[in-house]
Amino acid sequence: MAEQLPDQKPISNLVVFGFCELWGLAFGFPPAEDLYHGVAVNPRMVTFMAIGSAFAILGPTWPLIKTTIPRAFSATFTKAASDFRWWLVALVLIFVFVWGPQIYQRAMSSGQSSEPLFTQSQVTAKIAAAVAPLNSKISQLQAALADMTRQRDSALIQKPSRPLPLPSPISGPITWSPDLTAWNTGDNEGPLLLGIGVRGITSGFADLKDAYIISDVTGEKKTLEVSTAPGPQLSPISQINQIPPGAPVELWAAFKPPGIRPNDLLTQWHTFHFHAEYSGIVYDRVFDVTALANQFPNMGPHITKKVPSK
């Protein structure tokens, strides 16, 4: 029976969920305030409700949506969601929408009456009292964000905290190599990886049915393809024939062009589970990509040059 891997929910998904729901509230308060006061529906209300609803839906569906959009955009959005300055902007907007009308009405009433309803010190005291809960909430969010950051950093430690589990004892007609192989290229900024491969060799006929890898860091899953010619030239598993005895097997996880930097591979795919099904065999093992470090001198901790200040 295949080993059941734990359902992992990356911390970045929770950060994006909270970020989107907060912005959904920020855009939802204005039309809710207007509807409460009996204002007729207008284009402004519809626009704010549409944007707020979009954020409210985006939060819980982010783990699914991020797999359909470019990696660079999803990484940028996750980075913005982790930036507390954007959280602070949303909280300030909510404060303005909730307390702004009351402060404005009191200020107008004060200007029209012969005697002010509140003195300057009273107004200051009331604003301070209104802001105090927000400051407390901000402090709690800062502490929560710091804790999430610590958990994320601990998940990205480059050395595993315990020995990697042993592979499945039975590999059947395919003997898998413990070493990974890399499909790489490069540009002016350094090396790029177009894919990582798992190799093996058959000792008998093998009917390969399915194979994939899952990152232990992010939970991302990649379906593997088979190399049918040097290059490598890749084909889906469903399109290959039965593998004869003595044939080398290379299964590749390809990255979208232009590829991935070695340090990003180390961060996002430090360790991953390999799963393959063939000829009635279910094979699982864990790989550590630091084994590729000898192929890339700048993979992992290294000395870097200072960037000139502009």
Question: Any overview of this molecule?
Answer:
The structure is a single chain. The protein contains six helices and nine strands. It has 310 residues and is α+β, with helices and mostly antiparallel strands. It folds into two domains: 145 residues, no CATH class; 122 residues, Immunoglobulin-like, CATH 2.60.40.
In short:
By secondary structure, the chain is an alpha+beta fold. It has helices at residues 11-36, 43-65, 71-81, 84-112, 120-155, 262-268, and strands spanning 174-187, 190-202, 208-215, 221-223, 225-229, 233-235, 248-254, 271-278, 281-288.
Describe the secondary-structure layout:
Blueprint: H1 11-36, H2 43-65, H3 71-81, H4 84-112, H5 120-155, E1 174-187, E2 190-202, E3 208-215, E4 221-223, E5 225-229, E6 233-235, E7 248-254, H6 262-268, E8 271-278, E9 281-288
Antiparallel strand pairs: 1-2, 2-7, 3-4, 3-8, 5-6, 5-7, 8-9
Search tags:
310 residues, alpha+beta, Immunoglobulin-like, disordered N terminus
Mean pLDDT: 77
Percent of residues in helices comes to: 40-55%
Q: How far is it from the N-terminal to the C-terminal residue, by CA?
A: 59 Å
Number of spatially distinct domains: 2
Instruction: Give a count of the beta strands, DSSP E runs of length 2 or more.
Output: 9
Major β-sheet strand ordering? 1-2-7-5-6
Tell me the β content.
Answer: 15-25%
Molecular shape:
elongated
